[in-house]
Amino acid sequence: MPRQAGDGAAIRPSRPLPDHGFRITTAARYAMIKLPCADGTIARRLKLLNVLTFALLLVLAVSNCGQFLALEKQLVNLRQFHELVEEVLELRSHGHDLLHSGGAGDMAAIRRSLARIAGAGQKLQPVLARLSSPEEYQGFVEATRQYRACLAPPKQGTISRECLQRYGNIMVGFVTAVRDRGRVGLADSSLRTIFFTFTLVPMTLAILLTGLILSQAGRVLNRINLAGRAGRMLRENPAPIPDTPSARDEVHSLIQGANRMATELEARTNQLIQVQKLAAIGTFSSSIAHELNNPLNNISLSADMLLQDLDQLSPDEIREILSDILSQTDRAGAIVRDLLNFSRAGETPAREIEVRDLVGQALGLIANQLRLGHVRVDTSIPDDLPAIRGDLRKLQQVLLNLLTNAIQAMPGGGRIRINARHDGDTVRIDVSDTGEGIPPEKISRIFDPFFTTREAGQGTGLGLAISREIVRRHGGRIEVKSRPG
């Protein structure tokens, strides 16, 4: 049964296909994750957010304490107002009793009430002055003095009823009016305190906290999101990831470490590719030696013939022999040149490559190994297939790995077929052979480094792993399908 050893490297063409007017590049993929972020570490931003929140709560607590202390002071003043009003009312009651009974006890009670009224008036003087006009306040003070004078009439005189009632009414009217004004002021102050404490401050705090959270937490989430996207990018393509240079935070340190790891991994991968390339050269070095031996033998025979029969040969015959020597020299030089180009380390500039030339050069490098293994190669490459852009030597290495695997899978000889065609916006190259196939349980591990289906000592197990890495770097993909039997 036929086995498809490589379901090809799907490589993007260097120029757009007729139905597609765009091309995806590596730079465009990386530009998608570049996010501007402010300076400072994530921990510092979170700490700043906590400090600001605590500061706002502290301001709220201090403001509330101030408001409640002011409210408490007003309540104390109001209680003292009530005491003052009660003393004035009690004074008028004692005065009424004094006018009817004329007892010494009533006079003593009146004098005590006047003393308490004077003390309360002294304590409440700033408040009384604020809640009344200067004329009203002075009228109250004068009424108190006159009320006291009414209790001490001239010698052998009597206490005047009209005097006590007149000034007593003035005192009662004043303290009652001040008490009512104090109640209104207290109610207004209470409403202001309640509005400030339970409405204005919480709303202001909520707005400020929302702004801070959106500002600081948004930056933190952006950096965390960048770290997640960077992780996904590293899984898909382990290459350095750009980041904002000014963002000196934990995510920046993480990305720097990941970039160092990716750079070192890429360097190690390049070394591994070169090692596998040299191993591949060793695999078919005997075939290359045999390939070189043919033109060298022809050159030797032609030169020997020319040396022995130089006198008998005509100029045209000599010219023909020399042309044959030059032709064989060019043939040997081409073999050596192709081998050197393939084995040279390092990257070569990406350029447009015709798929037909890529396949032809790879088959030329392995031609003698195909002949010795009795393997026939059939190719099907359309003339209008667009060129691909990439590293010629690396792509040759991929094809040589696939062809070498196919030859080794057919020890008794067989057939390899190479098909190339359009596949969406990519060029697809299929390499299939007529070998025995790969067991299903090994398909999932076929691209693992150092995994091989051959016996120990017959391969490094790096060929397909390196091939997948090369194809991935060219923006393509490689798959393996097999039907054992």
C-alpha Rg (nearest Å): 53 Å
Number of helices: 14
- Which secondary-structure class do the elements indicate? alpha+beta
CATH superfamily of the largest domain: Histidine kinase-like ATPase, C-terminal domain
Low confidence ranges: 1-40
Q: What is the name of the CATH class of the largest domain?
A: Alpha Beta
Q: Strand-and-helix sequence, N→C? A: EHHHHHHHHHEHHEEHEEHH
Largest sheet report: 4 strands, mixed
Could you say how many structural domains there are in total? 2
- How far is the first residue's CA from the last residue's CA? 5 Å
Oligomer: single chain
- Approximate strand percentage: 5-15%
Q: Could you tell me the CATH topology label of the largest domain.
A: Heat Shock Protein 90
Strand order of the largest sheet: 1-6-5-3
CATH architecture of the largest domain: 2-Layer Sandwich
Estimate percent helicity. Answer: 55-70%
Q: What's the total count of β strands?
A: 6
Shape: rod-shaped
The pLDDT mean sits at 70
What would you say this structure looks like, in words?
The relative contact order is 0.13. The N terminus is likely disordered. It contains 14 helices and six strands. It has 485 residues and is an alpha+beta fold. The chain is rod-shaped, with a radius of gyration of 53 Å. Strand 5 and strand 6 form a beta hairpin. The protein has two domains: 232 residues, Histidine kinase-like ATPase, C-terminal domain (Heat Shock Protein 90, 2-Layer Sandwich), CATH 3.30.565.10; 173 residues, Up-down Bundle (Four Helix Bundle (Hemerythrin (Met), subunit A)). The termini are close together. The longest helix is centred in the middle third of the chain and has 76 residues. The strands form two sheets. Strands 1-6-5-3 form a four-stranded mixed sheet. It has a two-stranded antiparallel ribbon with strand order 2-4.
